[in-house]
Amino acid sequence: MPLPDFLTIGAPKAGTTALHAALARHPGLFLSPVKEPKFFLTDGPPPTRGGPGDAQTYREHIWRREDYEALFGAAPPGALIGESTPFYLYDRAAQRRLRAAVPEARLIVVLRDPVERAHSNWTHLWSAGLEPVGDIVRACGEEEQRIRAGWAPFWHYRGLGRYGEQLAHLFTLFPREQVLVFRYRDLVDRPADTLDRICRFLGVETGVVTEVPRENVTAHPEPTRGHRLLSRALRTGAAVGRFLPGRLSGALTDPLERRLQQRARSRRPLTWEQREQLIGYFAQDVALLQKVTGEDFSDWLRPRERSGGLVGTRPAGQRQARNGRPQA
């Protein structure tokens, strides 16, 4: 059975779910039916403990080689096969596993303003009822403590946005011509051109896919007393659920998550005061990123004229993905 010809490896909350859905429409490409298999994140079974909800997410990892290869079994002859796990860029060990297993693979990297990415990441977990801290700045301040406690990478709001470090390591393993790096805003502002750029990079026909669908749009429930109570109940359910079979665990928490997101508004922009407090975490890495890529990212260190997700309001009936798995 084959392994991927290409992978979208980063970054989380940078439009990778929507990009995966867009590329899956190309007849010359076959994308894994599971958007984030996370196969290269471990050498064996994933951890069983972590932060709120992590145990349930770990159960979704496709870590057995035969199960991973089976994802691509339905690929038509001649199609390039790919998958999208945006944590591979962040995880240095995953980068090394990729180099050992698929050294010729082409890698796609989407970079988003790291402050915006962190805010969207925090909002995602707040919306899901898992984030106990109702302030993005304070939550970022707790990152080192959370890492020491073994919380999963999706909680690493600051670390996930240090792209300079990540790409510097990646380029010691893969030649630059095998890595396509572009901005999240390219998907938003110039979707057809950006998709054509990706298709040229992969060597498939351009002009076939021209739109990026509205997928995994982050909403923002108000910090009401009801939200606090539901979130506390959901985190308790998630803690109990790690001792239950997968279906029973989901039955315990899914109804609570649905209720949390029923009246959620679009993600609200950060104030300049909040943004200014967070920029300091990334300024040194932005300088490294510019050196590594030869491109200018200084706009990430300034106030923003606009803020928000890929398409704004979440489509009716759509639910936010739970760390990689779309919710029905």
Characterize the structure shown.
This protein is of the alpha/beta class. It has 14 helices and seven strands. A five-stranded parallel β-sheet has the order 2-3-1-4-5. Strands 6-7 form a two-stranded antiparallel ribbon. Helix 8 packs parallel to helix 14 (283-293).
Essential attributes:
328 residues, alpha/beta, 5-stranded parallel sheet, two-stranded antiparallel sheet, 14 helices, 7 strands, 9% strand, globular, disordered C terminus
The helix/strand order is: EHEHHEHEHHHHEHHEHHEHH
Counting DSSP H or I runs of 4 or more residues, the number of helices is 14
Percent in strands: 5-15%
Note the main sheet: 5 strands, parallel
Shape verdict: globular
End-to-end Cα distance = 29 Å
Rg, Cα atoms, Å: 19 Å
Quick description:
The protein is an alpha/beta fold and about 325 residues long. Helix content is about 40%, strand content about 10%. Helix 8 runs parallel beside helix 14 and helix 11 runs antiparallel to helix 12.
